[in-house]
Amino acid sequence: MVNKPQIDRSAIDIEQLEYDKHVNFYYSNLINSIILFALTLDELDKLAAPTFNPMSELETEIDYAFTPVCFETIFRNKLVDECFKAELMAFKKSADDIPPEIWDWDHIDTHPTWVQIRQKANELLEKLGIESRTYNDDYTIVYIGDSGSSI
């Protein structure tokens, strides 16, 4: 008979509680990442600012949103129903599969891959009950200069 290692459930619960404190941020990040993929070139261009590069955000925000512990925290806290998990993961895979050569402003409105992922993003947002396509910047922190102060 093999002894199974004992798992300290209290340590897991404490860690989960720490992540649970930030679940609204993780949820906002997930929805924002899908919203970015739902926008047209003109809509993305309107988001551009010295501290916000929409193309960079398209690439990075989705990776952060689907970080397993953050992603799972959203479901554990029931901000998104479990029935959407597979569809969200399929969307992430579609985004990951965008060829590097079309990660360019010139392709966002015209390349079939971008058109298809924009359509998927909009459909997914509708299924999730998200009506607005406004990027939520409530959790955005801008650091200024060497002082490290933030606004």
Structure description:
With 151 residues, this protein is mostly helical. It has one domain. It is 58% helix and 3% strand. It has eight helices and two strands, in the order H-H-H-H-H-H-H-H-E-E. It has helices at 9-20, 23-38, 41-47, 54-65, 68-76, 85-96, 105-108, 112-127, and strands at 143-144, 149-150. It has a two-stranded antiparallel ribbon with strand order 1-2. A hairpin with a 4-residue loop joins strand 1 (143-144) and strand 2. Helix 2 packs across helix 4 (54-65), helix 2 crosses helix 8 and helix 6 packs antiparallel against helix 8. It is globular. The protein starts with 8 loop residues before the first helix and ends with a strand. Mean pLDDT is 85; it is low at 4-9 and 141-145.
Tally the helices. 8
- The domain tally reads 1
Distance between the termini: 59 Å
**Extended strand count:** 2
- Percent of residues in helices comes to 55-70%
CA radius of gyration: 18 Å
Mean of residue pLDDT?
85
Structural class: mainly alpha
Would you identify the regions where 5 or more consecutive residues have pLDDT less than 50?
4-9, 141-145
Strand content bin: under 5%
In spatial order, strands of the major sheet run 1-2
**Main β-sheet, in a few words?**
2 strands, antiparallel
Task: Write the H/E string, N to C.
Answer: HHHHHHHHEE
- Cα shape: globular
What's this model, at a glance?
The chain has 151 residues and is mainly α.
